[in-house]
Amino acid sequence: MSEQLNWDPELIQRYNRSGPRYTSYPTAVEFKVVENDQVEKDLLSQRNQDVPLSLYLHIPFCAHVCYYCGCNKIVTKDRSKSEPYLDLLKAEIDRKAELLQGHPIVEQMHWGGGTPTFLSDEQMTDLMDHLRKRFTFSTDDSADYSIEIDPREVRPNTLKLLREIGFNRTSFGVQDLNEKVQQAVNRIQPESMIRKVMTEARELGFRSINIDLIYGLPHQSQQTFAETLDVIIDMSPDRLSVFNYAHLPERFKPQRRIKEEDLPSPEEKLAILGNCITTLTKVGYHYVGMDHFAKPDDELSRAQGDKVLHRNFQGYTTHGDCDLIGFGVSSISQISDCYLQNSPDINVYEEAINSNHFPVVKIITTDKDDLIRRQVIMELLCHDQMIFSELDQAFSIDSRAYFTEELSQLSPMVEDALLEISNEGIHITEKGRLLVRNACMVFDTYLNANIIQSYSASADASSTTNRPRFSKAI
């Protein structure tokens, strides 16, 4: 795959519409309310025993509120609040594990949040011990056990402990190193702190280290973000996630503390991203897609080159063949061809566990059309192409006839040289890689149905208030 990205600000601005990030298809906004937990019990007990597992644990606690954050979290200085939650989490783990048949192997695990390292070293050790009593973890070199880390929440022994209990990949939330920007978003962490945790993680042998950055934050400029990027490149993370800040204060209360007049203009924000992409590719990082960069020898880059990269709720992954089982408030599972989500409300979650039920509140079961479209979207996102013959063989269809209307709708992108359509399939060009979500949205029947519905709805407030909102592509 080419390392070149064709940067055309005018074209990008023209196509920069809101849309899903497609960590699933159908997306989470399409999940339907479920009345009871029997469907999840059936899915767990009847799943294919030979399919490996990926586990996700949501730890919602944060000691500090970051004003840009839209995650499901509980902000508290009281560390004792985590203990009752861990009891609930372990009860959920027990009940789900009991339903699994055979001895499925866990090939991937991720702890997210919130701030997982809000937990004490003793709590993290106990939680991992509990998981190992219920599941068999793969010892293969390809096994992927990762955790999100706030550098401010790293105690002297934390990283060493995480390696000892089995984590081999980590992600540090940095966002920006400029002090004025950090103050504006209430996340103060000096460069020396980031360097310290990065150095220690390397010395401890973490296989892959990711750093998260955000562009579009208050007081950022091309110059300040370039300075941050130079320092981060010098630290040499294996992966970089460079996310677009979506300012939605009506949805996320902490964002109301960010002054809109302090945000970079749309033109400046776009230039920040353009400079970032140019700089990272120039120094050798491979653009994986959807804000993600990796060194050429990283597993993500190799998987993309071998055409085995996948995408799910954990982002780009090399373990897309696993059933994903989520634990904790708001977590999402993917079992076979069904998606399920736990309640995002901690009180509802607690009540369900204490009542000996699963805390599932939403579900969607995919049909054949969903699966066909999911493969198209994931192939475009992961490999910048979709091959007609592969789709025909997988689903016994004539994909060119099946998608006659969609292929026609892609004509503007063809005319703008963002993609090519041949007898072989659809190929995203260098010019179109940053806008691949636009191509994916053409194949999203749910999104297009919502758009049609919004056009036909009355213009009063009730017709728009509950409509799902997405961040812009760039």
TrEMBL record:
This is Coproporphyrinogen-III oxidase. Binds 1 [4Fe-4S] cluster. The cluster is coordinated with 3 cysteines and an exchangeable S-adenosyl-L-methionine. S-adenosyl-L-methionine 1 binds at residues 56, 113, 148, 332. The gene is hemN. PROSITE patterns: RADICAL_SAM (PS51918). Monomer. Belongs to the anaerobic coproporphyrinogen-III oxidase family. The lineage of its organism: Bacteria, Pseudomonadati, Pseudomonadota, Gammaproteobacteria, Oceanospirillales. GO terms for molecular function: 4 iron, 4 sulfur cluster binding; coproporphyrinogen dehydrogenase activity; coproporphyrinogen oxidase activity; metal ion binding. It is an enzyme of class 1 (oxidoreductase).
